[in-house]
Design a protein that fits this description.
single chain, 71 residues, mainly alpha, 54% helix, elongated
Length: 71
C-alpha cells in the first residue's frame, strides 16, 4: 500500500468514489498539515526554497524596465 511523506496511507480514487461528500470533505480536512514541524525537515526546506524562487521570479518579472525620473 502506498504512503505519503508522513507515512500515512494514500487514499485511492476508487476509495474516494465510495465516500459520501461529507466523508470526502472530512478526509480532505484531516489531510491538511497546519504545523510544519510535522513534516520532514528536508521536505520543508525544499518547499521554502521553491517559494523563495517563485517570489524572486515574480519580483523580477514585475520590476519596471524604464523608471521615470522626476525633473
Amino acid at each position: 500500500m502506498a504512503t505519503d511523506r508522513q507515512g500515512r496511507t494514500v487514499t485511492t480514487a476508487s476509495e474516494l468514489d465510495r465516500m459520501t461528500p461529507q466523508e470526502r470533505h472530512e478526509h480532505f480536512l484531516a489531510s491538511l498539515v497546519m504545523d510544519l514541524s510535522e513534516l520532514p525537515p528536508d521536505y520543508v526546506e525544499r518547499l521554502q526554497r521553491r517559494g523563495r524562487e517563485l517570489i524572486t521570479r515574480r519580483d523580477v518579472e514585475h520590476t519596471p524596465r524604464d523608471i521615470p525620473h522626476a525633473s
